[in-house]
Amino acid sequence: MRKQVKFHAKVGFTLQDFYKSRYDTIEQIERTLAQTVSKVCGGCATFRTDGWWCEDGASHSDEFTGQLHKEITINLEVSCELPKENRTYEAIQQACKFLLNNNLDIEWVHVSRSEFTGMHFNVKEVE
């Protein structure tokens, strides 16, 4: 058992933005995120969901009245040892910047962070 940090990043974009990008499949976008982050942490998980946001969502208001938009959201979950925390967060940022530089119009990425005690076991060794 060891103390670890988990990051959950939500990278959202519209289908129209996807078609304007240099990517042929959404899986290529997931792979780009996974390859960059896995170089620091050894692995990660990705999954797709629908994301929703209001046009005035960045205003920090008590209530949001802007038009509601739907987007494709790639969720990236990665855990690392505490000493790798900063490098892992920077890898997430760099992977997203790489996507932007390849014409995928993303702007805001939501990242949550939590500390936990990590455990692993080899199922083949379980009696």
Provide a descriptive summary of the structure in words:
By secondary structure, the protein is an alpha+beta fold. It has a single domain (2-56, 68-118), classed as Alpha-Beta Plaits (2-Layer Sandwich), CATH 3.30.70.120. It has 3 helices and 4 strands, in the order βααββαβ. It has helices at 15-20, 26-41, 85-101; strands at 2-13, 45-54, 68-81, 109-118. α2 packs antiparallel against α3 (85-101). The longest helix has 17 residues, at 85-101.
User: How much of the residues is beta strand, in percent?
Assistant: 35-45%
CATH third-level topology:
Alpha-Beta Plaits
- Output the strand order for the largest sheet: 2-3-1-4
**Rounded radius of gyration (Å):** 17 Å
Low-pLDDT parts are none
Mean pLDDT: 94
Q: Classify the helix fraction into a percent range.
A: 25-40%
Structural class, by secondary structure, is alpha+beta
Count all strands and give the number.
Answer: 4
Given the C-alpha coordinates, what overall shape results?
globular
The biggest sheet amounts to: 4 strands, antiparallel
N-to-C span: 20 Å
Per CATH, the class reads Alpha Beta
The tally of structural domains comes to 1
Contiguous helical run count:
3
Tell me the series of helices and strands, N- to C-terminal: EHHEEHE
CATH arch. level architecture: 2-Layer Sandwich
